Amino acid sequence: MTTELPSAVPETHPRTKGDTLPTVAARNSVADDIAESDAGTVVDVASQWQLMRWKFSRHKAAVVSLWIVAFIYFVGAFAEIIAPQDPNRTSGRHQYAPPMAIHFFAEDGSGFAPHVHDYSFETDPRTYRKTFVEDPEKVIPIALFVQGDTYHFWGLFEWNIHLIGPVEPRQPFYLLGTDRLGRDNISRIVHGTRVSMSIGLVGVAVSLVIGLILGGLSGYYGGRVDHAIQRTIEFLRSMPTIPLWMGLAAAIPLTWDPLAVYFMITVLLSLIGWTSLARETRGKVMSLKNEDFVTAARLDGVSEFRIITRQLLPAFMSHIIAVTTLAIPEMILAETALSFLGIGLRAPVVSWGVLLQEAQNVNTVATAPWLILPGVAVVIAVLALNFLGDGLRDAADPYSHN
Amino acid sequence: MIHFIAKRLVAMVVMMFLISVAAFVIIQLPPGDFLTTLVASMQQGSDVSQEQIAFLTRRFGLDQPLYIQYWRWISGILLEGDFGYSFQWKRPVAELIWDQLGFTMLLSLATLLFAWAISFPIGVYSAVKQYSIGDYIVTFIGFIGLAIPNFLLALVLMYIGFRYFGQSVGGLFSPEYRTAPWSWAKVWDLISHLWIPMIVIGAARTAELIRIMRANLLDELNKPYVTTARAKGLSEVRLILKYPIRIALNPFVSTVGWVLPSLVSGAVIVSVVLNLPTVGPLLLTSLQSQDMYLAGGFILLLSVLTLVGTIVSDILLAILDPRIRLE
Amino acid sequence: MSDILLEIRNLSTYFETRSGVVKAVDGLDLTLRRNHTMCVVGESGSGKSMTASSILQILKRPGRIVSGEMIYHFRDGRTVDIARLDPNSKQMRAIRGKYISMIFQEPMTSMSPVHTIGSQISEMMLVHEDVSKAEAKARTIELLTRVRIPDAAARFSSYPFQLSGGMRQRAMIAMALACRPDLVIADEPTTALDVTTQANVLNLMREIQRESGISIMLITHDLGVVAEVADDVTVMYLGRTMEQANVFDLFNAPKHPYTRALLGSVPRLDLQRGERLTQIRGMVPNPFARPTGCPFVTRCPERRFGLCDRQEPDLYRLDGSTSRCFQHDPVHAAAWAQNDEVLA
């Protein structure tokens, strides 16, 4: 405020010739400084993205969520390495085995020696049910970056290094327990991350393309085009989605390749998903197309296509990104629901919904509550994406104050 | 008003037509036709002759072009209430559908009322006491409510019930009432079973409605007419009840349009988990066994009933809002 | 019965926000006479509307009255300091609408869109007076007729969106008059209307004042309106009174440099050809960065250095008017006159 200003300060309110007042002389006085800085001669300029970033960083929950989401996608991307073992490796001896605890120090006090304990089996004398008990005698040493099951990393090369695992390959190591066939729960959840999180992304990408095009056309041209697209959206939204999806998903032939099923399901989810994005786009385009800067461009003879891509799109892109982020969790939830019912993705594809299928009845859940854990993964992912989207939406709106 | 309702009704008829086409497409989608399935299942018992197949083909009009098949199907439904034949149950679809559909609608509507009844006061509280601790708690719970898939919530509740109370929480009736004729005791039994599915199905939508109510009311609380009312000397409680809440109610009521479809969807999934005698389990098995007339009938009726619910809410909105009623 | 209706002394209303304190009203003095029209003028951000909201204690959060007094004189001679009342108290609510009522800028948004005009007006009577619904309705229709709304009985059950802008503002006036208040505060009641409607509404207000002997506090930035309707004028700047005078003195012999600057920026018919309108240089300072010394010092063409930017002038009582400028301070006037270092 009190820094000295250069003498040739331009006046923001130029006075006219007939004015009797003497012109401003550079003067080192408090009053002058106030007058000049108030007149806006020193203005910090921040780009729109920078403003968004500032605003976003104030939204604590959203910042934390951003890291969580980044972590989840990281896990999905490097699933083969992070998972301790092959998600489809079964073990007849370890059906419904409970989670193991990691012990960091050796029991005899000889220092740092991370290990888990193998199970012993006890049979209930009355019910003859086999129960697992951790046996402190059976020590299985574990380490980081150990050799284990081989895999094709991203289909590029074969490798067998796992982030964490037993030092001795193929020894039992079940941090989050096992399922009906003795498959490692944590490895399955990690691999499910890739499928569930990517189906959200791919589905939203498809929705985004359809939504942007149809919403943009609807908002930009208005009239009959708008009417037709709006009625279509209303129609799709008035249908209960789950029965509709169930009907369509059930029509996917059982003989199809799992990858084809995956894409088909994505397309089905996008069938409804595009409507909300189209609505947002339409609203934004409608409010923007009559703005002065668009009219000015039109008067300058700029082509329609260029107006849309150069004037309109950048103006609402930030908003669309926020809405898109909010659409991903809906996709994830929908995929989970369909797969849970057994009409979405199918084994051997591993997604959170497919995993939850294992926990369909209460008896299973009572025997092996850890089979609910993929659901916890769903909740965390959806929660984080929702917070993130909320933060982005607030940041994208320069005039909101919350 | 009459003009408005007439317009909505015309739109509804068009929508119903489109829905029926969509349902018919779904019936037709599985590879082959249902006759293949039928023949396959008949062959397991006895031999099916060529004549029989030809007879069935003619009977169901499978040799006709699609639009004629559609016409036969829809006219059967409209004129005779004939929804076709369920091959899995070997009974006409119409016989199978109504009970389940009734329960589904009952459950969805009860859940809608429940979601409203809960979200309205909480949303109002959260807006009026913006930035209070209560508001933060409500907002946070709301976020969680939106993130939990309803079937997962159902599983968790069932697990808790099983583990800590030693009872199963599924079903709509206690065993002794399941086949009993209707009586007041049975109705009461139904009501006492209804609340768990209601919470499970309604949780996410309740959370969403709280957010909507809060946002609407916050908007309205800052409108000049609230200041006017304050300047009149009305007490704070009275003026909030009479003006902003009354006006925030309008968009709230109009949410039925999308809340109802999602509640019906939720009811379908949750019913599978909680083993409720609603459309869910039957629809799922019919889809899995490609019993397409049954599945198509369900999808058609669920959609149509949802549509009717939406129209009712539109009319309700018109009654509430003079700007819609009088323009 | 005292000639004075409302005395505001040193009123301050602050908004404590996260980014700092906004002093919307900052030591305001103002005297309202019974049966007179007081116009409050000033640029946007001068605190005119906040003054109105303060009088009725209908400030939006986080605004609150931090100091000062507002002595209201009832007809029976009792007085009350409104500034000391709790905004949510019964006494305050009894004053709102019954003794002091308000007409807002935007009649469309200031009325509930889903309640009829009639119910919104008669509510006022039902809240403050012991009347039956039928009585209130009859009186409302009477009021609507009085503010010249045609076919008043039918309009009773109309909704605001069914009326034209002028009609809505008339209905708003009817609402303000419902309980025969002593003071009607009108916050820019005509800015949202077109010019002919403006004149009609102003005429109506004057007429009503003449008939029923109420006081009007009219908030406006339109000096044309001031010349038309005012008895007294208060000029506000940055939440303070700069000058209060009767309308003739103010236009003929403006005391304060700010008043002079304001009057110089209004187009007049007697302006010579080629003569230019003057503009007040600079802008109203940022509410977070108020100047030290006189509030107007950053823009004043007559400011004196070493004086105006150091000390804050009081509100000096002159013959029948007041002015907040050192040139009217008996102590500083001489110094002010000698110090010829006029700075632009």
UniProtKB/TrEMBL annotation, chain A:
Keyword Calcium: no
InterPro entries from the UniProt entry: MetI-like (IPR000515), MetI-like_sf (IPR035906), OppC_N (IPR025966)
Subcellular location: Cell membrane
Entry's transmembrane regions: 61-83, 199-223, 235-254, 260-278, 312-332, 368-388
UniProt domain ABC transmembrane type-1: residue ranges: 193-389
Keyword annotations from UniProtKB, A to Z: Membrane, Transmembrane, Transmembrane helix, Transport
Its membrane topology: Multi-pass membrane protein
UniProt key word Glycosyltransferase: no
Domain of life: Bacteria
Region of interest called Disordered, as start-end residue ranges on this chain: 1-21
Pfam families tied to this protein: BPD_transp_1 (PF00528), OppC_N (PF12911)
Family assignment from sequence similarity: Belongs to the binding-protein-dependent transport system permease family.
Protein name according to UniProt: Peptide ABC transporter permease
Organism: Devosia nitrariae
Upper lineage: Bacteria, Pseudomonadati, Pseudomonadota, Alphaproteobacteria, Hyphomicrobiales
UniProtKB/TrEMBL annotation, chain B:
Keyword hit for Transmembrane helix: yes
Keywords, comma-separated and alphabetical: Cell membrane, Membrane, Transmembrane, Transmembrane helix, Transport
Topological relation to the membrane, as annotated: Multi-pass membrane protein
Entry-linked Gene3D superfamilies: MetI-like (1.10.3720.10)
Compartmental location: Cell membrane
Stretches assigned to the ABC transmembrane type-1 domain: 101-317
Pfam family membership, one: BPD_transp_1_N
Segments crossing the lipid bilayer: 9-29, 101-124, 136-162, 182-204, 248-274, 294-320
InterPro entries noted in UniProt: BPD_transp_1_N (IPR045621), MetI-like (IPR000515), MetI-like_sf (IPR035906)
SUPFAM superfamilies: MetI-like
Family (UniProt): Belongs to the binding-protein-dependent transport system permease family.
Xref: PANTHER family: INNER MEMBRANE ABC TRANSPORTER, OLIGOPEPTIDE ABC TRANSPORTER, PERMEASE PROTEIN
Protein name, UniProt field: ABC transporter permease
Organism per entry: Devosia nitrariae
UniProtKB/TrEMBL annotation, chain C:
ATP-binding recorded as keyword: yes
Source organism: Devosia nitrariae
Location of this chain's protein in the cell: Cell inner membrane
Main localization of the protein described in the UniProt heading: membrane
UniProt similarity note: Belongs to the ABC transporter superfamily.
Alphabetical keyword list: ATP-binding, Cell inner membrane, Cell membrane, Membrane, Nucleotide-binding, Translocase, Transport
GO molecular function: ATP binding
SUPFAM superfamilies the record matches: P-loop containing nucleoside triphosphate hydrolases
Topology with respect to the bilayer: Peripheral membrane protein
Cleaved signal peptide residues: none
Domain ABC transporter: start-end pairs: 6-263
Protein name: Dipeptide/oligopeptide/nickel ABC transporter ATP-binding protein
